[in-house]
Amino acid sequence: MQRGPGRRLPTYDELAAALTHAEVTLAPGGELTSQIYPSASKPGQVEDLYVTTPTANVALTPDNAEFPISFRCVTDPRN
Description:
Elements: H1 12-21, E1 31-38, E2 46-51, E3 58-62
Antiparallel strand pairs: 1-2, 2-3
C-alpha cells in the first residue's frame, strides 16, 4: 500500500506530453526523467535521460552531482 504523496520523477513520455499538451515550461538547461541507462563511457555507472528542449529532444548526463539538472516531481492520479 502506498503511503504519502508518492512523488517521483516523470517518465520521458509523461514529461514530453506535459510539454506539448499543457502549459508547462521546461526549466533552463532541461529536466531529468526517471529513465537511466548503463554508461557507455564509464562501465559500472549509469547515466540519466533528460529532456533538453520544449520539443522533447533528449541527452544523457552522468548520474552524479557534478552536472546538476533540474527536475519536477509527478504523482499518480488518485480517485
